[in-house]
Amino acid sequence: MSDIDDLPLKSGPAGGWGSLSGMKQVMRTSRPEAGFLDTLRRQNKPGGFMCSSCAWPKPPNYRAFEFCENGAKHTMWENTSHRCTPAFWDDHTVTELRDWSDHDLEMTGRLTAPLRFDAESDRYVETSWEEAIDGIAAILKNLSPEEVVFYASGHAALEASYLYGLLARLYGTNNLPQSSNMCHETTSVGLKEVIGSPVGTVIWEDIAKTDCFFFFGQNPGTNSPRFLHPLKEAKDRGVRIVTFNPLREQGLVSFISPQDPVAMATGKETIISDQYHQLRAGGDVAAILGLCKAVIEADDAAQEAGRPRILDVAFIEEHTTGFDTFIETCRNTSWSDITREAGLTEGALREAADVYMTSERVIGVYGMGLTQHSRGALNIAMLVNLMLLRGNIGRPGAGMCPVRGHSNVQGQRTVGIAEKAELIPNDRLKTLFDFDPPLEDGTHIVDAVEGLFTKKIKAFLCLGGNLLRAVPEQKRMEEAWAGQEMSVMVSTKLNRSHLFPAGHAWILPCLGRAEIDEQATGPQAVSIEDSFSMIHGSTGHRKPPSPLLKSEMAIVCALGKALIPDNPKLRWDEWTGDYGLVRDLIERTYPDDFAEYNNRLFTPGGFWRENPAHKRIWETESGKAVFTDPDQLNSISFEDAEGRYRLITLRSNDQFNTTIYGYSDRFRGIEGTRDVVLMNEEDMAAAGYVKGDRVALVSDAGDEETRRLGGLAVIPYQIPRGTLAGYYPECNVLISIKHHDQLSKTPASKSIPVRIEKDA
Ligand SMILES: Nc1nc2c(c(=O)[nH]1)N[C@H]1C(S)=C(S)[C@@H](COP(=O)(O)OP(=O)(O)OC[C@H]3O[C@@H](n4cnc5c(=O)[nH]c(N)nc54)[C@H](O)[C@@H]3O)O[C@H]1N2
Ligand SMILES: Nc1nc2c(c(=O)[nH]1)N[C@H]1C(S)=C(S)[C@@H](COP(=O)(O)OP(=O)(O)OC[C@H]3O[C@@H](n4cnc5c(=O)[nH]c(N)nc54)[C@H](O)[C@@H]3O)O[C@H]1N2
Ligand SMILES: [Mo]
């Protein structure tokens, strides 16, 4: 095995020497197999494989090492030399494993054989693919389609995802919730409503031309570290960056590029944010309203003095609706209301507004800090309001930049993993496959969870993910999950969702993205769509960890063949043998997005699906971009009260969602544990806590349910008063399933009402 010291570390992007020791630590625990350095060299380059960590775009003019600290960790973690073979179950029962941590479960290594749950021995036992597929199909045939959910986490590539959606519809249901239901669903619904696009509008050219970024609730240092390079380049050419985030996130404060030997040697850092505004959790509506108010006041003053207007009046007239009502609200809302709700001073907001007004081209970047709120869609609409005031959408160097999560989460939506029937080209599916697709909407993940509670949902298939750990209401979910008739999980590693098996349960182990996918016509490539709507081919080159693994595509097709009555248009075996045929089908289903798909598969930087809002074509109800008049000044759904806090659930720098690589959140200085709650020092003093006190958080959602998480150590932290922070997924026990965005139902994981109490 290569040593970490052999890593091209001086070139591996991500912040300074710390990122190298972060990788080293994961390498020590996961023990990647020989050849992983070669794998890292191929990461995110044409002809290589596309990292299955985050969805940050892969540039056309890539670097020698186009991976970051966390992408490297992800690759090492997947390419571990550890194996979780069927023999593992000789020593462990399912019940016993429930006491294991998420980290330890995945550390058992790659799954190597299909497994069936044996209730009598309380263990999974090895089974054959035939038994598994036939067994699953037999149970599905006895259930009604509306009782079955086909979940997908954003990992699986476009080809397998397209057929997974088709399989569910051939079976008779649109129950196709996806991980984005817990993530950027707020964008899919909220952004679409106001600018007609369910995805971001910017591309690389805009990043290169902009002169200002406004960051709201996105943490690039941890969650999209390759973004730090264009940000540094931007800073080098004088671009200004203004950040709104309750926490001071290191990646938004300063950065040392490991690709810059001088900076590495001298420790010279680039300051990222010119202004950093630590607003209250849920305070964005007020903060952005304050920015807009300052812009409008400046425009009034400019008009009075006969200077050029600050607003882009021509754009507003031609392209938008709702402007007059919105500016009335800006004028009528007092600074005292704004500053109270935002937790920021008028001076701070005016300073930020000055940068906005004096920049020609502004990009609005956002992530979970805007989407995961009870009024997440209002947050996004407010950011759009700000951008529209100066025509900052649909022109070079400007636009909306939601940063997506899983590597192909956006693409899965593009090719039909969606619970809403209206998003599906059903006529084309009917012609292509000779069947009547279901026209009723299926379940969103929130409906699916509620359906499990009421027993309307009787079986779950999961194409990847760790749903039990990712959803709210974790405790109730575990019981409900085990109470189903069937659970089937296509997985690479063992995780907690496997430990609450339904009456019939299977784990189907699949190939990872970096592995050779050998089929009848030879090795296959797959493809994914990134956050800029660019489609990239991806070819694995590593030997799979076990000869028994199947590709996600082969698994979906095998299930299709066993479940769906024969029909000459359904060529499951041929599709498994040649993924190019599936890409042809995708092109015929979505001709505007995928023209010349197979020919353009390996375009450097990907090929672009285009985006009407990028060209100022607004596919909204009115045909215009919409100014939204906010009906409240924050994005939460509860009143402030004595002793009630707003809890943010966070990702550490040592995890990918529910996959916990280790216990080092180096950027926040939290080492060796995840059982913490971050609290403002004045709040601690007022509540009588000192550093290290053991506390419990208790849900304060005002319903009957008791939700409590004990064993947490209090850490004094630079966080606004009234706001607490803890880690996801540990804190998910505290979230009510009813606590979600009004419009899109995205769980409101960023301001959960809680109380804090001493833990006995
Ligand atoms: N290494 C790594 N990479 C990842 C992931 C991972 O877990 N690990 N997850 C992937 C996935 S699926 C996703 S969706 C993305 C998530 O990436 P992000 O969108 O960055 O998500 P989070 O880290 O959950 O939260 C983002 C930020 O929101 C801030 N915040 C919280 N509440 C508020 C608020 O009310 N207002 C504002 N303005 N800010 C707030 C938090 O302090 C935090 O810095 O990352 C993807 N990439
Ligand atoms: N409180 C709180 N809850 C949250 C969030 C939050 O910020 N706070 N974030 C939400 C967000 S943004 C998201 S996206 C969800 C994530 O929810 P999920 O997508 O369901 O969860 P992951 O942790 O990404 O899934 C990890 C598992 O995926 C499997 N896996 C890994 N690679 C592959 C592969 O290539 N193929 C297959 N088939 N399986 C694979 C492994 O078995 C691994 O254990 O969680 C949501 N939940
Ligand atoms: Mo996500």
UniProtKB/TrEMBL annotation:
<dbReference type="GO" id="GO:0051539">
    <property type="term" value="F:4 iron, 4 sulfur cluster binding"/>
</dbReference>
<dbReference type="InterPro" id="IPR006657">
    <property type="entry name" value="MoPterin_dinucl-bd_dom"/>
</dbReference>
<dbReference type="GO" id="GO:0045333">
    <property type="term" value="P:cellular respiration"/>
</dbReference>
<keyword id="KW-0560">Oxidoreductase</keyword>
<dbReference type="GO" id="GO:0008863">
    <property type="term" value="F:formate dehydrogenase (NAD+) activity"/>
</dbReference>
<dbReference type="GO" id="GO:0030151">
    <property type="term" value="F:molybdenum ion binding"/>
</dbReference>
<keyword id="KW-0411">Iron-sulfur</keyword>
<dbReference type="GO" id="GO:1990204">
    <property type="term" value="C:oxidoreductase complex"/>
</dbReference>
<dbReference type="Pfam" id="PF01568">
    <property type="entry name" value="Molydop_binding"/>
</dbReference>
<dbReference type="InterPro" id="IPR037951">
    <property type="entry name" value="MopB_CT_YdeP"/>
</dbReference>
<dbReference type="InterPro" id="IPR010046">
    <property type="entry name" value="Mopterin_OxRdtse_a_bac"/>
</dbReference>
<dbReference type="InterPro" id="IPR050123">
    <property type="entry name" value="Prok_molybdopt-oxidoreductase"/>
</dbReference>
<keyword id="KW-0500">Molybdenum</keyword>
<dbReference type="InterPro" id="IPR006656">
    <property type="entry name" value="Mopterin_OxRdtase"/>
</dbReference>
<keyword id="KW-0408">Iron</keyword>
<protein>
    <submittedName>
        <fullName>Molybdopterin-dependent oxidoreductase alpha subunit</fullName>
    </submittedName>
</protein>
<dbReference type="InterPro" id="IPR041953">
    <property type="entry name" value="YdeP_MopB"/>
</dbReference>
<dbReference type="InterPro" id="IPR009010">
    <property type="entry name" value="Asp_de-COase-like_dom_sf"/>
</dbReference>
<feature type="domain" description="Molybdopterin oxidoreductase">
    <location>
        <begin position="110"/>
        <end position="488"/>
    </location>
</feature>
<keyword id="KW-0004">4Fe-4S</keyword>
<dbReference type="GO" id="GO:0043546">
    <property type="term" value="F:molybdopterin cofactor binding"/>
</dbReference>
<dbReference type="Pfam" id="PF00384">
    <property type="entry name" value="Molybdopterin"/>
</dbReference>
<feature type="domain" description="Molybdopterin dinucleotide-binding">
    <location>
        <begin position="645"/>
        <end position="752"/>
    </location>
</feature>
<dbReference type="GO" id="GO:0016020">
    <property type="term" value="C:membrane"/>
</dbReference>
<keyword id="KW-0479">Metal-binding</keyword>
<comment type="similarity">
    <text>Belongs to the prokaryotic molybdopterin-containing oxidoreductase family.</text>
</comment>
